[in-house]
């Protein structure tokens, strides 16, 4: 077997390797760079178009992957579930099984269903109970709270759609999700303006409490493809017990038939 070595050719301005028929041949043109997707710099049409797309598709399966940091200790957080978006545009229904715990240990798990403002929880292998109507032992309460907060953040634009006049597109950059071209948007919500426009007393109180704690702005991240479908979002939250959640949500099945119903008792 003959081994052909190709090295630098000492000709002024030329280095490389020759192959049969290459001398005098016209070099092939460089591969064209992927075309950049159109971008939104006004949040209002971005929110409107993404909302319209998700309502048309009706729902998606999803997965969650991230970390929970508490007192200097970081543990992985994973989950899978589904999101159903109704045509009327109300808050989507959510089904989620969330797991967390140190690597190598048996993970804690909580299953959660959210429909029309009601939330049901199923810690571990226990039975279902509606939030606010059942009490949980302390060892289950913290994980149930984590699952509820993650579920509340699964609506791709839920954190910003309520306050379009308080939102700014801080960045719009070309990116890809699993090989699909997307635009990665970073949206910033002005909490002062959001509180001023909020009509729900409980929500307004929560926004004002965040301001008093020193927060003036919140950010949201979303990756949108050429069809205005959200393929990924980022959930960052400071939980009531002081732990910090940072997770990516991947929407991998827009248009799939999704059924989410309240749990059956017993």
Automatic annotation (TrEMBL):
**Which domain of life does the UniProt lineage start with?**
Bacteria
UniProt protein name: Lipoprotein
What is the native source organism of this protein? Pseudonocardia alni
């Amino acid at each position: 077997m003959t081994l052909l070595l190709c090295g630098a050719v000492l000709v002024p301005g030329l280095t490389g390797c020759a192959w049969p028929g290459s001398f005098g041949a016209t070099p092939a043109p460089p591969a064209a760079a992927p075309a950049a997707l159109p971008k939104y710099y006004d949040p209002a049409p971005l929110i409107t178009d993404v909302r319209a797309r998700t309502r048309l598709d009706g729902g998606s399966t999803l997965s969650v992957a991230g970390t929970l940091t508490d007192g200097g200790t970081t543990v992985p957080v994973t989950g899978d579930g589904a999101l159903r978006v109704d045509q009327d545009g109300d808050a989507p229904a959510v089904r989620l099984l969330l797991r967390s715990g140190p690597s190598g240990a048996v993970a804690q798990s909580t299953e959660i269903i959210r429909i029309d403002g009601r939330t049901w929880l199923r810690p571990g292998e226990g039975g279902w109970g509606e939030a606010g109507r059942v009490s949980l032992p302390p060892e289950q309460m913290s994980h149930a709270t984590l699952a509820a907060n993650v579920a509340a953040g699964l609506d791709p634009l839920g954190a910003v759609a309520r306050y379009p006049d308080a939102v700014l597109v801080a960045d719009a950059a070309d990116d890809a999700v699993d090989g699909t071209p997307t635009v990665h948007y970073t949206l910033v919500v002005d909490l002062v303006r959001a509180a001023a426009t909020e009509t729900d007393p409980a929500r307004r109180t929560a926004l004002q409490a965040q301001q008093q704690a020193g927060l003036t702005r919140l950010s949201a991240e979303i990756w949108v493809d050429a069809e205005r479908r959200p393929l990924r979002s980022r959930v960052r939250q400071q939980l009531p017990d002081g732990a910090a959640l940072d997770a990516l949500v991947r929407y991998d099945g827009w248009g799939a038939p999704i059924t989410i119903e309240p749990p059956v008792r017993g």
